[in-house]
Specification:
alpha/beta, 358 residues, Quinone Oxidoreductase, Chain A, domain 1, homodimer, 6-stranded parallel beta sheet
Chain lengths: 358, 358
């Protein structure tokens, strides 16, 4: 099959062997697959990621001297069932799935594995147990957003928002946009979102932000304080409490570069909560004293549960979220390498979908 | 009055003017006042603390070129009432109080202020509204532990422990011991505590730790994993979950030096919670990726509420906690400078009380 392959830290198009479905697996035709920020990071910092992953969760356990086909945000069509499957969904059915398979008794992530190709190739294999049919006539493009939107959904679930809390989203790349979408769905607000890019701020408004801030002009934290101002606090009698009276705050870190967490710590109100979903893979610095005197809470989050993935596909299928504006480009396999470069410019792109059969 | 004064980063005994109670304030005779780790830190790193505090909460807003009488962990006796007071408690009554007063419309902390002397002097002024009588014949020494024990009580309250969670306390200085005491009171367990010092580990057992670990010999995190092992996890269906099945974990950071938070992040189980009460005033480093892949939660905590302070005095008065072993020395004002040095040796001391009239 044809695939856009990661080889020597470059994306090249090549003919490689198509995968064969193992026990419990299904062969599918990739219809569309989004390029994720983690894919960009892997292309450049792959060795570092593999190294760190080895000490930890094995999420990125790859041999980078061998080919890897990335792509874990896909919508696909059932081609053929492997052994030990039920065949419940008809061949030709469009499906989404969590990019998780088993290889040698260990979990493998489609797109971050030498053995399990991701969606930047014409065919993939999926675990039958992970497959969900795409229903309600929703487009393949929108269905392919299920995986990245699930990350936002999970993030907001993990934030356990109370109705009176005012959210601030720092960074309006695909992760921030997914968080804003999930916040909108929760009915909390006003949703305040900050990004240096005008195009990203416009997208933020389109998916549900009530107020957008250009941090080059206004402090997102001061804007938050103005909008969250309240007549009284939560009534706790801690005499060390000072500063303006505001509704409680939940700040979402959706950037993932060193220094941003410390900025959020400095900007957060007393008793504030910070939810970190931006995937910073480098050493970071912060001032614990600042977080201590404000009694901040920091929740780190990753990925999503199966239930959250299914809910997200449902929300997209039922038109409960407005995610179409996020798709800023579509390319065939020959366009993947350029798309990786183009995604560096937030004015031009948010999410580019790869259509391997284009 | 005589007082142990912080002057030019040294403790010297001198005769200084006694404070005069202002509106709503009460003049008291200091009976006993514990030396806190923050006092040791202030003597050495005072300028840095004042600097940082200025950008933040003003907790340590002092002019270090002028005298400061430290000491905020006190038990005192009522001498005289100032204007605008009710005089509800009889002169001669022993009292504890949160070390909080108002000066020029701003909060001032007794012991960290040029204007409000702390307990390392013969007399202090307190806000009448903050005073609580020492009842039930409890000793002055034990009553003086109310403030530091309140910090542990507040920390455990902020941890919002569930019954099945297994606590691990890193560092068994006075803060760690206060946390262990509060955990014991909550009835959770086993309580696992780690410290390099044999004397501190012994104290940890005396105040309620079920298992103590010498990190020089065994990993506290591996010990925790062994003791928290469980047949099943919390049932969440996140397929990225791996590692040994354990009961959920709450790790308490009671050390407060750079690098410890990152060690806890590295050692914590997936979904674990870290509560930071150790007051690190320096820049710190950590790896966000590790915290993200384990979806850790970090709660920073400081001080206590008025209700928690009152509950702590009650618990001490009713003999519900065993805190007497923490008192490892008593000195008069002439012994304060040496006591500051002696507290550097965890084998010799945990809490030294200053008795200004000794």
């Amino acid at each position: 099959m044809r695939a856009a392959v990661m080889r020597d830290s470059k994306i090249v198009v090549d003919d490689i062997s198509a995968p064969t479905p193992g026990s419990g697996e299904v062969l599918v035709k990739t219809l569309a697959c989004g390029i994720c920020g983690s894919d960009l990071h892997t292309l450049i910092h792959g060795h570092q990621m593999v190294e760190m992953s080895r000490d930890n969760d094995g999420l990125f356990d790859m041999d980078l001297s061998r080919d890897v086909v990335m792509g874990h945000e896909f919508c696909a069509e059932i081609l053929d069932y492997g052994p030990d499957t039920t065949g419940k969904l008809a061949v030709g059915t469009r499906v989404c799935a969590m990019p998780v398979l088993m290889r040698g008794g260990k979990m493998a992530t489609a797109g971050y594995s030498n053995d399990v190709p991701g969606g930047f190739g014409e065919q993939m294999v999926l675990l039958e147990s992970m497959m969900l049919p795409v229903t309600n006539g929703v487009s393949t493009e929108l269905a392919a957003l299920t995986e990245p939107m699930s990350v936002g959904y999970h993030t907001v679930e993990m934030a356990r928002l109370q109705k009176d809390e005012v959210p601030l989203v720092i960074g309006c790349g695909p992760v921030g946009l997914a968080v804003i979408t999930a916040l909108k769905l929760k009915g909390v607000g006003p949703i305040i979102a900050a990004d240096f890019s005008p195009a990203r701020r416009k997208l933020a408004e389109q998916v549900g932000a009530d107020v957008v801030v250009d941090p080059g002009i206004n402090s997102p934290y001061e804007t938050w304080t103005d909008l969250a101002r309240a007549d009284k606090t939560d009534g706790r009698d801690n005499p060390f409490d000072s500063g303006p009276k505001t509704r409680p705050g939940v700040y979402f870190e959706c950037v993932g570069v060193p220094g941003v967490i410390d900025q959020l710590i400095a900007g957060a109100p007393r008793g504030g909560r910070i939810v970190v979903v931006g995937l910073c893979m480098e050493q970071d610095q912060f001032m614990p004293y600042r977080a201590i005197t404000k009694e901040l809470n920091i929740q780190f989050v990753l990925a999503y549960t199966g239930e959250e993935f299914a809910s997200t596909l449902h929300n997209i299928s039922e038109g409960l979220v407005n995610v179409e504006p996020m798709i800023t480009g579509k390319v065939g396999l020959d366009g993947v390498a350029d798309a990786f470069n183009d995604l560096g410019d937030p004015e031009k792109h948010a999410k580019i979908l790869v259509e391997p059969w284009r």
